[in-house]
Amino acid sequence: MSFGALNYLWVFVTCIIVFSGCYLFQMKRQKQMLSWIRLDYWKFIIPEFSKNKFKSKWIFMGLGIFFVLIALIRPQWGEHEELIESKGMDIIFALDLSNSMLSEDVNPSRLERAQSMIKKTMTQLADDRVGVIGFAGRAFLAIPLTNDFDYVAEIVDTLAPSAIMEQGTEIGEAIDVAIKAFERGGSDNRKTSRAIVMISDGEDYGKNAIENAAKIKEFGAGFFTFSVGTTEGAPIPVRSENGILQTYKKDRGGKTVLSRTNPDLLSKIANSGGGKFFELTNIDDASYILSRQLASFHRDSTKEQRKITKIDRFQYFLALGIILLMISLTIGYQPIFRKIAIILLLM
Protein backbone atom coordinates (compact mmCIF):
# COMPACT_ATOMS: atom_id res chain seq x y z
CA MET A 1 0.00 0.00 0.00
CA SER A 2 1.19 3.51 -0.82
CA PHE A 3 -0.14 7.01 -0.18
CA GLY A 4 -0.90 9.66 -2.80
CA ALA A 5 -0.94 12.74 -0.55
CA LEU A 6 1.86 12.40 1.96
CA ASN A 7 2.12 16.21 1.97
CA TYR A 8 -0.85 16.06 4.38
CA LEU A 9 1.01 13.77 6.76
CA TRP A 10 1.70 16.73 9.06
CA VAL A 11 -2.08 17.19 9.46
CA PHE A 12 -2.40 13.52 10.37
CA VAL A 13 0.33 13.69 13.01
CA THR A 14 -0.90 17.02 14.43
CA CYS A 15 -4.48 15.78 14.83
CA ILE A 16 -3.33 12.56 16.52
CA ILE A 17 -1.24 14.58 19.00
CA VAL A 18 -4.11 17.00 19.70
CA PHE A 19 -6.61 14.18 20.15
CA SER A 20 -4.26 12.30 22.50
CA GLY A 21 -3.78 15.48 24.53
CA CYS A 22 -7.55 16.02 24.80
CA TYR A 23 -8.09 12.41 25.89
CA LEU A 24 -5.41 12.59 28.58
CA PHE A 25 -6.84 15.92 29.76
CA GLN A 26 -10.32 14.37 30.08
CA MET A 27 -8.94 11.37 31.97
CA LYS A 28 -7.12 13.65 34.38
CA ARG A 29 -10.23 15.77 34.81
CA GLN A 30 -12.34 12.68 35.53
CA LYS A 31 -9.90 11.51 38.17
CA GLN A 32 -10.05 14.93 39.83
CA MET A 33 -13.85 14.87 39.86
CA LEU A 34 -13.88 11.36 41.30
CA SER A 35 -11.50 12.51 44.04
CA TRP A 36 -14.01 15.19 45.04
CA ILE A 37 -17.18 13.06 44.92
CA ARG A 38 -17.46 9.31 45.39
CA LEU A 39 -18.44 7.20 42.36
CA ASP A 40 -21.66 6.11 44.13
CA TYR A 41 -22.85 9.74 44.30
CA TRP A 42 -22.18 10.34 40.61
CA LYS A 43 -24.93 7.81 39.79
CA PHE A 44 -27.43 10.08 41.51
CA ILE A 45 -26.10 13.26 39.85
CA ILE A 46 -25.82 11.74 36.34
CA PRO A 47 -27.87 8.49 36.26
CA GLU A 48 -26.40 7.50 32.87
CA PHE A 49 -22.79 8.03 33.94
CA SER A 50 -20.54 5.08 33.23
CA LYS A 51 -16.76 4.79 33.03
CA ASN A 52 -17.12 2.13 30.34
CA LYS A 53 -19.42 4.40 28.34
CA PHE A 54 -16.93 7.23 28.69
CA LYS A 55 -14.06 5.07 27.41
CA SER A 56 -16.16 3.60 24.58
CA LYS A 57 -17.11 7.06 23.37
CA TRP A 58 -13.48 8.15 23.17
CA ILE A 59 -12.40 4.90 21.51
CA PHE A 60 -15.01 5.21 18.73
CA MET A 61 -14.26 8.91 18.31
CA GLY A 62 -10.51 8.27 18.17
CA LEU A 63 -10.87 5.48 15.64
CA GLY A 64 -13.23 7.61 13.55
CA ILE A 65 -10.80 10.52 13.43
CA PHE A 66 -7.94 8.11 12.71
CA PHE A 67 -9.64 6.60 9.65
CA VAL A 68 -10.73 10.03 8.35
CA LEU A 69 -7.12 11.20 8.60
CA ILE A 70 -5.94 8.04 6.83
CA ALA A 71 -8.36 8.91 4.00
CA LEU A 72 -6.83 12.40 3.86
CA ILE A 73 -3.43 11.05 2.81
CA ARG A 74 -5.08 8.94 0.05
CA PRO A 75 -4.17 5.26 0.58
CA GLN A 76 -3.66 3.45 -2.72
CA TRP A 77 -3.29 -0.15 -3.81
CA GLY A 78 -3.81 -1.89 -7.09
CA GLU A 79 -2.91 -0.45 -10.49
CA HIS A 80 -4.55 0.30 -13.82
CA GLU A 81 -3.05 1.29 -17.14
CA GLU A 82 -3.96 4.50 -19.00
CA LEU A 83 -3.19 5.35 -22.60
CA ILE A 84 -2.32 9.05 -22.84
CA GLU A 85 -2.31 10.61 -26.29
CA SER A 86 -0.44 13.86 -26.86
CA LYS A 87 -1.55 16.20 -29.63
CA GLY A 88 0.54 19.10 -30.81
CA MET A 89 1.82 21.21 -33.66
CA ASP A 90 5.19 22.54 -34.79
CA ILE A 91 5.90 26.27 -34.44
CA ILE A 92 9.01 28.06 -35.68
CA PHE A 93 9.76 31.59 -34.53
CA ALA A 94 11.79 33.58 -37.06
CA LEU A 95 13.54 36.30 -35.05
CA ASP A 96 15.02 39.32 -36.77
CA LEU A 97 18.62 39.78 -35.57
CA SER A 98 19.52 42.81 -37.67
CA ASN A 99 21.22 45.74 -35.92
CA SER A 100 18.04 47.83 -36.14
CA MET A 101 16.43 45.48 -33.62
CA LEU A 102 18.68 47.03 -30.96
CA SER A 103 16.78 50.34 -31.24
CA GLU A 104 15.14 51.39 -28.01
CA ASP A 105 11.97 53.08 -29.22
CA VAL A 106 10.18 50.37 -27.21
CA ASN A 107 11.30 49.33 -23.76
CA PRO A 108 13.82 47.81 -23.23
CA SER A 109 14.58 47.30 -26.95
CA ARG A 110 12.93 45.81 -30.01
CA LEU A 111 14.97 42.63 -29.73
CA GLU A 112 14.36 42.10 -26.02
CA ARG A 113 10.64 42.70 -26.46
CA ALA A 114 10.55 40.09 -29.24
CA GLN A 115 12.46 37.61 -27.06
CA SER A 116 10.03 38.19 -24.19
CA MET A 117 7.06 37.59 -26.45
CA ILE A 118 8.47 34.22 -27.59
CA LYS A 119 9.00 33.13 -23.99
CA LYS A 120 5.59 34.36 -22.92
CA THR A 121 3.86 32.53 -25.77
CA MET A 122 5.55 29.26 -24.82
CA THR A 123 3.92 29.40 -21.38
CA GLN A 124 0.56 29.06 -23.15
CA LEU A 125 1.54 26.05 -25.25
CA ALA A 126 1.15 22.46 -24.09
CA ASP A 127 2.33 19.53 -26.21
CA ASP A 128 3.58 21.59 -29.15
CA ARG A 129 7.16 21.72 -30.43
CA VAL A 130 9.01 25.00 -30.90
CA GLY A 131 12.02 25.96 -32.98
CA VAL A 132 13.78 29.31 -33.48
CA ILE A 133 15.50 30.82 -36.52
CA GLY A 134 17.71 33.88 -36.36
CA PHE A 135 17.96 35.92 -39.53
CA ALA A 136 19.53 39.11 -40.85
CA GLY A 137 21.67 39.09 -44.01
CA ARG A 138 21.80 35.31 -43.53
CA ALA A 139 19.56 32.89 -41.67
CA PHE A 140 20.42 29.97 -39.37
CA LEU A 141 18.53 27.45 -37.27
CA ALA A 142 19.29 28.47 -33.70
CA ILE A 143 17.01 25.87 -32.07
CA PRO A 144 15.65 22.76 -33.83
CA LEU A 145 12.08 21.73 -33.09
CA THR A 146 11.80 20.63 -29.47
CA ASN A 147 9.31 20.50 -26.61
CA ASP A 148 11.96 21.50 -24.06
CA PHE A 149 10.68 25.04 -23.54
CA ASP A 150 13.18 25.79 -20.78
CA TYR A 151 16.02 25.12 -23.20
CA VAL A 152 14.36 27.29 -25.86
CA ALA A 153 13.94 30.19 -23.43
CA GLU A 154 17.58 29.93 -22.37
CA ILE A 155 18.90 30.03 -25.95
CA VAL A 156 16.50 32.76 -27.09
CA ASP A 157 17.95 35.12 -24.49
CA THR A 158 21.43 34.68 -25.98
CA LEU A 159 20.47 35.55 -29.57
CA ALA A 160 21.88 38.90 -30.72
CA PRO A 161 22.94 40.65 -33.95
CA SER A 162 26.53 39.63 -33.25
CA ALA A 163 25.52 36.05 -34.10
CA ILE A 164 25.31 37.04 -37.80
CA MET A 165 28.17 38.89 -39.44
CA GLU A 166 26.27 39.76 -42.62
CA GLN A 167 23.62 42.37 -41.88
CA GLY A 168 20.42 43.14 -43.78
CA THR A 169 17.15 41.20 -43.68
CA GLU A 170 17.07 38.12 -45.91
CA ILE A 171 13.54 36.82 -45.52
CA GLY A 172 13.81 34.30 -48.35
CA GLU A 173 16.62 32.37 -46.69
CA ALA A 174 14.80 32.51 -43.34
CA ILE A 175 11.75 30.87 -44.92
CA ASP A 176 13.89 28.20 -46.61
CA VAL A 177 15.56 27.36 -43.30
CA ALA A 178 12.14 27.16 -41.59
CA ILE A 179 10.75 24.78 -44.23
CA LYS A 180 13.81 22.54 -44.00
CA ALA A 181 13.48 22.53 -40.19
CA PHE A 182 9.88 21.36 -40.50
CA GLU A 183 10.86 18.61 -42.92
CA ARG A 184 13.70 17.41 -40.69
CA GLY A 185 11.54 17.61 -37.60
CA GLY A 186 9.09 14.90 -38.66
CA SER A 187 8.64 12.18 -41.24
CA ASP A 188 4.95 12.85 -41.81
CA ASN A 189 3.49 15.58 -43.99
CA ARG A 190 1.60 17.46 -41.29
CA LYS A 191 1.31 20.79 -43.09
CA THR A 192 -1.90 21.79 -41.30
CA SER A 193 -0.07 21.48 -37.97
CA ARG A 194 2.76 23.89 -38.72
CA ALA A 195 3.18 27.63 -38.33
CA ILE A 196 5.90 30.23 -38.81
CA VAL A 197 5.89 33.31 -36.58
CA MET A 198 8.09 36.14 -37.83
CA ILE A 199 8.99 38.98 -35.43
CA SER A 200 10.76 41.93 -37.03
CA ASP A 201 10.84 45.69 -37.43
CA GLY A 202 10.35 45.30 -41.21
CA GLU A 203 13.36 47.42 -42.10
CA ASP A 204 15.76 46.75 -45.00
CA TYR A 205 13.89 43.73 -46.39
CA GLY A 206 15.07 44.15 -49.97
CA LYS A 207 13.12 43.87 -53.21
CA ASN A 208 11.93 40.25 -53.16
CA ALA A 209 10.60 40.03 -49.60
CA ILE A 210 6.92 39.85 -50.59
CA GLU A 211 7.55 37.34 -53.38
CA ASN A 212 9.65 35.13 -51.10
CA ALA A 213 6.86 35.05 -48.48
CA ALA A 214 4.64 33.26 -51.00
CA LYS A 215 6.77 30.14 -50.40
CA ILE A 216 5.03 29.70 -47.05
CA LYS A 217 1.61 29.69 -48.69
CA GLU A 218 2.80 27.09 -51.20
CA PHE A 219 4.23 24.97 -48.40
CA GLY A 220 0.93 25.10 -46.58
CA ALA A 221 2.07 26.26 -43.14
CA GLY A 222 0.38 28.95 -41.09
CA PHE A 223 2.10 32.32 -41.09
CA PHE A 224 2.05 35.28 -38.72
CA THR A 225 4.11 38.46 -38.74
CA PHE A 226 4.56 40.79 -35.79
CA SER A 227 6.05 44.27 -36.11
CA VAL A 228 8.05 45.58 -33.18
CA GLY A 229 9.08 49.21 -32.74
CA THR A 230 7.54 52.53 -33.75
CA THR A 231 7.16 54.37 -37.04
CA GLU A 232 8.70 57.46 -35.40
CA GLY A 233 11.89 55.45 -35.07
CA ALA A 234 14.96 55.63 -32.87
CA PRO A 235 18.75 55.60 -33.30
CA ILE A 236 20.64 52.30 -33.17
CA PRO A 237 22.88 52.20 -30.07
CA VAL A 238 26.42 50.89 -30.25
CA ARG A 239 27.51 49.41 -26.95
CA SER A 240 30.69 47.94 -25.54
CA GLU A 241 30.98 44.29 -24.48
CA ASN A 242 29.98 45.41 -21.00
CA GLY A 243 26.78 46.98 -22.33
CA ILE A 244 27.95 50.57 -21.93
CA LEU A 245 26.58 52.96 -24.55
CA GLN A 246 29.41 54.34 -26.67
CA THR A 247 27.68 56.01 -29.57
CA TYR A 248 24.88 55.60 -32.11
CA LYS A 249 25.20 54.07 -35.55
CA LYS A 250 26.00 56.65 -38.24
CA ASP A 251 25.81 56.66 -42.01
CA ARG A 252 28.71 57.43 -44.35
CA GLY A 253 28.03 61.15 -44.01
CA GLY A 254 28.45 60.99 -40.24
CA LYS A 255 24.75 61.46 -39.50
CA THR A 256 23.00 59.34 -36.88
CA VAL A 257 20.92 56.58 -38.50
CA LEU A 258 17.27 56.61 -37.49
CA SER A 259 15.63 53.17 -37.65
CA ARG A 260 11.86 53.13 -38.31
CA THR A 261 9.53 50.16 -38.12
CA ASN A 262 7.73 49.31 -41.36
CA PRO A 263 4.38 47.71 -40.41
CA ASP A 264 2.95 48.16 -43.92
CA LEU A 265 5.63 45.95 -45.44
CA LEU A 266 5.17 43.27 -42.76
CA SER A 267 1.42 43.33 -43.44
CA LYS A 268 2.03 42.79 -47.17
CA ILE A 269 4.47 39.97 -46.41
CA ALA A 270 1.83 38.30 -44.21
CA ASN A 271 -0.77 38.58 -46.96
CA SER A 272 1.65 37.15 -49.52
CA GLY A 273 2.29 34.16 -47.25
CA GLY A 274 -1.41 33.61 -46.64
CA GLY A 275 -1.08 34.70 -43.04
CA LYS A 276 -1.99 37.48 -40.61
CA PHE A 277 -0.22 40.59 -39.38
CA PHE A 278 -0.19 41.99 -35.82
CA GLU A 279 1.69 44.71 -33.96
CA LEU A 280 3.77 43.81 -30.93
CA THR A 281 2.89 46.77 -28.72
CA ASN A 282 2.22 44.81 -25.53
CA ILE A 283 3.91 41.49 -24.75
CA ASP A 284 0.97 39.96 -22.87
CA ASP A 285 -1.57 40.99 -25.51
CA ALA A 286 0.58 39.83 -28.42
CA SER A 287 1.32 36.42 -26.87
CA TYR A 288 -2.37 35.97 -26.03
CA ILE A 289 -3.41 36.85 -29.59
CA LEU A 290 -0.86 34.44 -31.04
CA SER A 291 -1.79 31.60 -28.69
CA ARG A 292 -5.46 32.06 -29.62
CA GLN A 293 -4.58 31.96 -33.31
CA LEU A 294 -2.49 28.82 -32.82
CA ALA A 295 -5.28 27.19 -30.82
CA SER A 296 -7.44 27.11 -33.96
CA PHE A 297 -4.91 24.91 -35.80
CA HIS A 298 -5.46 21.21 -36.26
CA ARG A 299 -3.18 19.23 -33.96
CA ASP A 300 -2.00 15.74 -34.82
CA SER A 301 -1.08 12.98 -32.43
CA THR A 302 2.58 13.35 -31.62
CA LYS A 303 3.04 10.40 -29.28
CA GLU A 304 1.22 7.89 -27.11
CA GLN A 305 2.30 7.03 -23.61
CA ARG A 306 1.16 4.21 -21.38
CA LYS A 307 0.88 5.42 -17.82
CA ILE A 308 0.50 3.12 -14.83
CA THR A 309 -1.55 4.79 -12.10
CA LYS A 310 -2.37 3.49 -8.65
CA ILE A 311 -6.01 3.21 -7.58
CA ASP A 312 -7.24 5.44 -4.75
CA ARG A 313 -8.93 3.57 -1.88
CA PHE A 314 -9.55 6.48 0.49
CA GLN A 315 -13.34 6.08 0.13
CA TYR A 316 -13.36 2.98 2.37
CA PHE A 317 -11.43 4.67 5.15
CA LEU A 318 -13.55 7.81 4.91
CA ALA A 319 -16.82 5.87 5.09
CA LEU A 320 -15.57 3.78 8.05
CA GLY A 321 -14.36 6.92 9.84
CA ILE A 322 -17.72 8.69 9.44
CA ILE A 323 -19.62 5.63 10.71
CA LEU A 324 -17.40 5.39 13.79
CA LEU A 325 -17.85 9.11 14.51
CA MET A 326 -21.62 8.71 14.23
CA ILE A 327 -21.49 5.78 16.66
CA SER A 328 -19.47 7.89 19.09
CA LEU A 329 -22.28 10.46 19.07
CA THR A 330 -24.79 7.80 20.17
CA ILE A 331 -22.73 7.18 23.31
CA GLY A 332 -23.23 10.00 25.76
CA TYR A 333 -25.45 11.80 28.17
CA GLN A 334 -27.40 14.09 25.85
CA PRO A 335 -30.44 12.24 24.40
CA ILE A 336 -30.93 14.78 21.60
CA PHE A 337 -27.41 14.12 20.21
CA ARG A 338 -27.98 10.40 20.53
CA LYS A 339 -31.23 10.57 18.55
CA ILE A 340 -29.66 12.70 15.80
CA ALA A 341 -26.73 10.28 15.45
CA ILE A 342 -29.04 7.25 15.25
CA ILE A 343 -31.14 8.94 12.53
CA LEU A 344 -27.97 9.73 10.51
CA LEU A 345 -26.73 6.16 10.79
CA LEU A 346 -30.07 4.78 9.56
CA MET A 347 -30.28 7.15 6.55
How would the blueprint of this fold be written?
Layout: E1 2-3, H1 9-36, H2 39-45, H3 51-72, E2 75-88, E3 90-96, H4 110-122, E4 129-135, E5 139-146, H5 149-156, H6 171-185, E6 194-200, H7 209-219, E7 222-227, E8 234-235, E9 237-239, E10 245-248, E11 258-259, H8 263-272, E12 276-279, H9 283-295, E13 300-312, H10 314-330, H11 335-346
Parallel strand pairs: 3-4, 3-6, 6-7, 7-12
Antiparallel strand pairs: 1-2, 2-13, 4-5, 8-11, 9-10
Helix pairs in contact: 1-3, 3-10, 4-5, 4-9, 6-7, 7-8, 10-11
Description:
This protein has 347 residues and is α/β, with parallel strands linked by helices. 45% of the residues lie in helices and 23% in strands. It has 11 helices and 13 strands. It has helices at 9-36, 39-45, 51-72, 110-122, 149-156, 171-185, 209-219, 263-272, 283-295, 314-330, 335-346; strands at 2-3, 75-88, 90-96, 129-135, 139-146, 194-200, 222-227, 234-235, 237-239, 245-248, 258-259, 276-279, 300-312. α3 packs antiparallel against α10, α4 (110-122) packs across α9 (283-295) and α10 packs antiparallel against α11 (335-346). It starts with a strand and ends with a helix.
Could you give a quick summary of the protein structure above?
With 347 residues, this protein is an alpha/beta fold. It has helices spanning 9-36, 39-45, 51-72, 110-122, 149-156, 171-185, 209-219, 263-272, 283-295, 314-330, 335-346, and strands spanning 2-3, 75-88, 90-96, 129-135, 139-146, 194-200, 222-227, 234-235, 237-239, 245-248, 258-259, 276-279, 300-312.
